Amino acid sequence: MRSLGSLVIFAALVAAAASSGSAFMPGEWYAALNKPSWTPPNWVFPVAWTILYILIAIAGWLAWRAGGWTPALLAWGAGLVLNALWSYLMFGRHDIALALADLVALWGAIVVFIITAWPVSRGASYLFLPYLAWVTFAGALNFAVWQMN
After folding, report:
1. Which pLDDT band, with edges at 50, 70 and 90, does 36 fall under?
2. What number is the average pLDDT over the span 108-113?
C-alpha cells in the first residue's frame, strides 16, 4: 500500500478539498472589493493552486510512506480542511476577517507539517515550502483586502 499507487489516494484527498473549495467562486462581490495594487491577476490563482495541490499531495504521500500515521499527517489533513474552508468563508460567507483567521490557522498547520515531517521525510517538508510562501502572501493579501474594505 505504500507504493506509488497509494499516491492516488493522497491526490484524491487533495482533489476533494480543492473541489469543495472551488464550489465558492470569487464572483461579483470579490470583483467589487478594494484590493491592493499588488494583487495578482485572476489567472495566477488557479495556476498557483494547481501546482501547490500537486506538491501537497506528493508531500503528504512522502510523509506517510516514510513514517506512517504521524503528527505530520494530522497537520496535513487539518491543512486540507482549513484550505477548503477559506473559500467558503471568503467567497461563500463574504467574511473577510474570518477568512483571515482561517488563513492564520492554515499557516500554522503548514508550519507544523514542515516541522513534524522533517524527521521522517525532509523531501515532504521541502515540498511544503512553496505552500508556506504562497499562504504567507495570501495572508498578506487577505489582510490588505480586509483593511481596505
Report:
1. very high
2. 98
CATH assignment, 4-24+40-148: 1.20.1260.100
pLDDT at 2: 60
Rounded CA-CA distance 22/19 in Å is: 5
